[in-house]
Amino acid sequence: MPMAKNHRSERPSAFAASRPDPGTILDRLAPGPSRASRITHTEHLPPRAGRHAVWPDRIRAEVVAAVQAAGIEHPWAHQALAAEHALDGDNVIVATGTASGKSLAYLVPVLSCLLDGSEAPNGRGATALYLAPTKALAADQRRSVKELSQPLGNAVRPAVYDGDTPFEEREWVRQYANYVLTNPDMLHRGILPSHPRWASFLKSLKYVVIDECHTYRGVFGSHVAQVLRRLRRLCARYGASPVFLLASATAAEPAVAAGRLTGLRVVEIADDASPRGELVFALWEPPLTELHGEKGAPVRRTAIAETADLLTDLTLQGVRSVAFVRSRRGAELISVIAQERLSEVDRSLARRVAAYRGGYLPEERRALEQALHSGELLGLAATTALELGIDVSGLDAVVIAGYPGTRASLWQQAGRAGRAGQGALAILVARDDPLDTFLVHHPEALFDQPVESTVLDPDNPYVLAPHLCAAAAESPLVEEDLALFGPETAALLPQLEAAKLLRRRTSAWHWTRRERAADLADIRGGGGNPVQIVEEGTGRLLGTVDAGASHTAVHEGAVHLHQGRTYLVRSLDLTDSVALVEEANPPYSTVARDTTSISVLETDTEIPWGDGRLCYGSVEVTNQVVSFLRRRVITGEVLGETKLDLPPRTLRTRAVWWTVTEDQLDAARINPEILGGALHAAEHASIGMLPLFATCDRWDIGGVSVPLHPDTLLPTVFVYDGHPGGAGFAERAFHTARSWLTATRQAIASCECDAGCPSCIQSPKCGNGNEPLHKRGAVRLLTVLLQGAPEEKVPDEKG
């Protein structure tokens, strides 16, 4: 039953006890010296006993009885404390570990409130709204709520309201459901613009639950923060002031992040009182191959191939496992490789492994979720859609193909295993990447450091402006609203008037256009309509890809994977947002190449670093995808390059940059012949290491290095946010620059290669084919730069 995530007892079940312990599973995965040498570190996290409490006496007895009927006799201490605060009307965030029962912490007070409301004379009674970052999580939570509240009869009426909800059901949800489960996208585009039809629901709204709130970071998190402010404004119009209940994986300063997200004061509950089984966490580095990559660099076996082998071996052991991978393509590849290898042993075993990722059609997602719940599937290769998607009880092992970008996400993924109370195995398989290589050889950076702060910036004008328009369309903006939307609002309103998006009449600003104002804000940051992927011969819709990723993912000649099948993109129509594909079986994957230039628009802050300068401000980036490489699937060997003719894209964003002087170059023994390579190598490595200091990954950020930049008139390295207006990552880099660049220098210097490789200075997304690069020059350059670095002080602001 899905509510198993709340740990029914402190003892593992008999079923769990019969399973092999995680150490034994790991030993079977690494039986000989070849495999064992790939394990660079093993961390043993001991089991932890739980601490019980009692539910507050204000919780309805029927709700307590329903929870006990589900097998949960007593709450953990943090669950009871969260319920107490919720009943007191405090906004609260529960930031405890995976499988610590966060769902029950907010469900119990919510269900008790709905039960009270069911006795109200107006018939509708109290209502509650649940927000999840994914459709799958909302659907899974509905199952949990329905099962838990079954003894309560019709008093609790949960319903999912998202893009997959049939139109004939939507009216029933609006009129009768009192626990509506949705996502920020539907709240933004569907519920808030149609608020008169939701008037009775909003008028009675008592609680807003925001699940997995640590995922609301960067530009997406900034958009969600403004969506929540619009929700609060409309609730106030209808006379409601709901309490916000947030659930998060363990995070740094969770109350600060929750306050930034909601705009409210939030009480923090972070003392995890739940029990935990033993976790064995192995760091795994794939071996070097006999192949050589760009500039003759040694090439490691790919994390994809290594993870596929591990998933195969785990399936053969009968170990229920999930392999997490960052990309949709990676999930499909791991699934295909594992299925092929399992077929060689037993054809029936291939059906026990599948892929799960975003972009699937709704019916495909539901079928996979059901197969995983039933145990029909033994192994799953999944993107982060499953990290948050559904409650998977009974998993024994998790394999993580490449560092997922943040320690919070790493622990979230590792916590998918062992949720029934048994011991669990987690394996982080390193990519051939500076950060991954650094981490598997510096385990203290993972196991001895707190998780990151959540970075978001609701005041980003590119985020705020479209939400002011959407708010004005929902109800004209008045002076009293300005404080709600933040300090940048007053300055933006005249600009929106000048653009003829808003018009001021007497004391209010009105939306002036016929089109929907909500369509101005793309809260997922996709930058336009999704590109539809259509099979050329049949017209069948296979899925979609974000507009922002279309130039690199579905350009003409790209290899596209879907449901274990391989397709070649025959054409990309940017006007109609359609990519036509046909099924094929090429022996390669494709990687896009691009060129980038950058100009400084405004320098907000600059500080001296010896003779050099560290700066932060606004920049304009021009990027163009110009070609793509064909790489052999297993080895990564480059087979060829093909030119592309795609239009350039311009991005105004925020960046951190540093300059060095002639004297510093002399001190570093950097002559003009190696200057470009030293700067380029330092840029690549610093981009690779930034995720250790900000909640981003290298695909959220970009960089440019120039031996003589026209705006600074000095050798300069830029690292910028890959989103309009910025996402807070470059600002975080500016404030942690000394630690960030120190780790960057260490990562380059400690790498065993001679002249640079993917583990230190080569980048998988370099538009110049990793030319030029100079490893030793980068180390000397960073050494001299850091000699002038001041002590850093990270302010408590915007993340």
Largest sheet: 7 strands, mixed
Low-confidence stretches are 1-17, 794-799
**How does the helix and strand content classify structurally?**
alpha/beta
Helix run count:
28
- Termini separation (Å)? 38 Å
How much of the sequence lies in strands comes to: 15-25%
> Kindly state the mean pLDDT as a whole number?
88
Shape: globular
**Strand order in the largest sheet:** 1-9-16-15-12-14-13
Question: Helix amount, in percent?
Answer: 25-40%
How many DSSP E strands? 30
> Radius of gyration, rounded?
26 Å
GO molecular function: 3'-5' DNA helicase activity; ATP binding; nucleic acid binding
Organism: Streptomyces lacrimifluminis
Domain Helicase ATP-binding: 83-269
Region (Disordered): 1-25
Give an overview of the whole structure.
Residues 1-25 are annotated as: Disordered. It comes from Streptomyces lacrimifluminis. With 799 residues, the protein is an alpha/beta fold. The strands form 6 sheets. The protein has a 7-stranded mixed β-sheet with strand order 1-9-16-15-12-14-13, sandwiched between helices. A hairpin with a 5-residue loop joins strand 20 and strand 21 (541-545). Helix 5 (77-87) runs parallel beside helix 6 (102-117), helix 13 packs across helix 14 and helix 25 (672-689) packs across helix 28 (775-787). The two termini are 38 Å apart.
